Fold:
Amino acid sequence: MKGRFIAALLFIAGSFAAKAQYADPINIPVYYSVEEAMADKKAKQLNLRDQKLFYVPKDLSKLKHLEFLNLMRNNLEYWDKEIFTLKELEILNFKLNGIKYVPGDIANLKKLIRVDFSDNSISYLPQEIKALTKLQYLHLSFNLLISIPEGIGNCKDLEVLELDNNQLSYLPQNITKLKKLKNLQLGFNQFHEFDGSWLNFPNLEILNMESNSISYLPQEIEKQKKLRTLMLANNKLEVLPQGITNLKELRLLSLANNKLKTLPEGIENLTELKTLLLTGNPISNSEKERIKKALPDCKVYF
Structure:
């Protein structure tokens, strides 16, 4: 069962994240060294992945037309100034390096659409992130973040925000300005409370809050009318708000390993629900029968 659960999550999340990782080799040439790219005066795509780099080549700044830069899985710990001269850059992949912070100079890259800073040691994100008004995908999973700046609210084109596996315990109020957000990943952090004011994303389809310490889910969850996937496993929930039964688009609901004894009346309203995970909850046999009867087209795991 665990394998199916993980596969479902990866498939859904992958559909949003895939474009942030890869170049477009069919329509535009991809170069694998700066020297090679410099032979093309209008080189747009450079892939330096897995090249054991400790710093970027000095001539990188000469690639004025660069739109895609992949620096994934190197040994980069510091930000070379050459990166911030690439004013046409739209995709930047810094995944799996050793960087500890994101400098304010990131504001120079105003055309960025997709950024992957996941799997680093980042503990600080600057207010200057607000300059990235074209940003649609921001991957910050597996870092050391304890806070997100208010400036994130200025990135109003954001559709995917991945903040899972950090040390977050709260979100800035300005995050509710992200009206285009579709995928919000907050799992494996240190949230003890879930502020209802955060729940104001009219286009949100995926919300992952698993493996925190949340004991209360606010009634405002019902505002997320387009929500299709809600992940709340491994928390401390004892009850669910009645508003959860108004999530008519919900397909996947994970509530495993909480303290739930019952689900709200009206659970039968979740007619699109296909998978419900309830393992590790103290649910009585009679309540299990009620749930299964209420959701005849849903695969329920107790």
